Structure formats: structure tokens, C-alpha cells
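**C-alpha cells**
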Amino acid sequence: MTNVLIAGGAGFLGSHLLDRLLRRKDIARLIVIDNLWTGLRNNLAHINDPRVDIQQVDAERVDSVTTFDEIYHLASPASPPWYMAEPLRTVSANVLGTLRLLAALKPHGRFCFTSTSEVYGDPLVSPQPESYRGSVDCTGPRASYDESKRCAEAILFEARRTQGVRIKVVRLFNVFGPRTRPDDGRAVSNFITQGLRGSPITVYGAGSQTRSWGYVDDVVDALERFFWLEESEFPGPLNIGNDREVPVVEVAHYVRRHFPRSQIQHLDPVPQDPTNRRPDLTLARRHLPGWECKISYEEGVDRTIRWFRNTVSNLHSPKSLDAK
């Protein structure tokens, strides 16, 4: 039987991945760690499985006396307002968290890591293949996140090269959907929260910057297949996302259709906001044949709005500084 640890399991994406892990019959024990920095207890309220042990702890401070057959590291903020507010803490979660969690991995165990399209910076090529080394600024306002993700990738690939550690690394592109915090700060949740409050829907700059919006169910389908269902030792990195590119302002106008009282308001551009995001999915199609993002951003937004309406009752003022 398998012992598993998931770091960041109370987060938006981590809680969805936890649900998929709990479908497995081979797991004897599943430790969920989360410091609740950006994760929410409510994301785990539906969990009623005796195999699960939820612990409130930082990934970089987890007790490494116990070792695990599989480790899933999702313990990092992914929204600019959050990682820009506490950049050193963000670096710690990704870099020191990776080192600490590696120490908790059993020999011949598997370490799975969610990296990000942010490692490509403000890309000069589109779509972005995994071989693209990026157009990044290691001293810029987004560096705490993208550089710590790049460093964590380096740690894992060096552990694989020098110690034979089995790893799986994905680079995620703009995931959205239910269980996002109302004050998450990224574009889709920002627009929905603002609409529900009757506030202006704020777009930074002209909104011509494009993103590839991947609905969470599609993305977790890919993670499930790549991390444990497919019998492959391909380590990645592997782009996961929707390769349909949509301008931010178009999403804002789509959300506004649900909230006609809210007007679109344009604010000053955010420094170093990437102009485009689109994954090259050649490798994903090779290693996950038949997988694609089947849910359009329109349908995904509709589902997310329904979830917010039904679930989120306290729409306090968002911490929004930026929309990723």
C-alpha cells in the first residue's frame, strides 16, 4: 500500500487534486499539509476519509522523519497580489519546501511538482514550448514566484540526474474554477467577485494581454493522468493548459454579461504584466494522448460564477493589486 503526502492540499488546485487521489484504492495513508496562507479550510470540509490526516504546517517545516512513496508539491501562492506581498515567503515555499519535501521521499518514490508558465516570463515566442528558456527578469516584481519555480525545477532535475530521483514536473497555464478565493487577485475570480459586489470590473491597461484559460477539471484530468495513471517515467517539464488564447478584456466583457450593473473600468497597466500566454501542447499530446481542455473558457466562467453564487457569502474587499 502507498503512503502519500500532498503539500498545499487546502489550496484551490491542491484540494481538487486531493479529491482525485482519494479515488485510489492503493493509498493507505494520505497526509495533507497546508499552512492556510492562501489555502482555505472550507476546501477540505467535504473530506470524510479515515486515510486522511490534515496538518497545518509550512512545506519547508514538515517533519521529514516520516517518509512517503509519493509527494505532491503545490504549496505556493500563484496569484501576484499574494506573492508580491510576501516575496521571501514565496521563495521559501518553493525552494526550501522542495528541499525539505525531497528529504521526506522514500528511495524510489515519486516527487510531483506544479511549476508555472511564469517561468517563460514575457515570452518572445508563441506558443511557448517546454524548450523555450524564457524572457525573464530575475530582479523584477514577479521574480519571487517565477524564479523560485525555476529554481525548484532545477533542484528536482538535478536530484534526478545525480541521485536517480523519480520526478514529474508540469508547467500550468492560468487555471481557474471553483474553490478560488474571493480575494485571490487573478483575473477571472477578480471579475466575478467585483460583479457579485456590484463594483466596477477592473482591467489593467487596455486588456489586450492574452491568457490561455484552463478550467480546473480539465487541468486536474491531465495531472491525474501524468502524475500516476500513465505508466511513464517521462519527468517533464510538461505544459498543461488550454491553447486557446483569449484577451483579458474579452473575459471581462463576458463576465459582465452576468452582472450588467457593473461597468468595465480600465486602470493603469501593471509593470511587467506578460503580454501573452499560450502553451505549446505537442509534448502533452504525445504523453497524454487524447487529452485536451474540453471546457471552453465561457462554460468554465459560467460554472465558476454558479459556484461563487452558491458558496461564497462573504465577499469582503479583495486584496487585488493585479490580475494574472
Remarks:
- The chain has two domains: 2-173+216-240, 175-212+242-278+294-311.
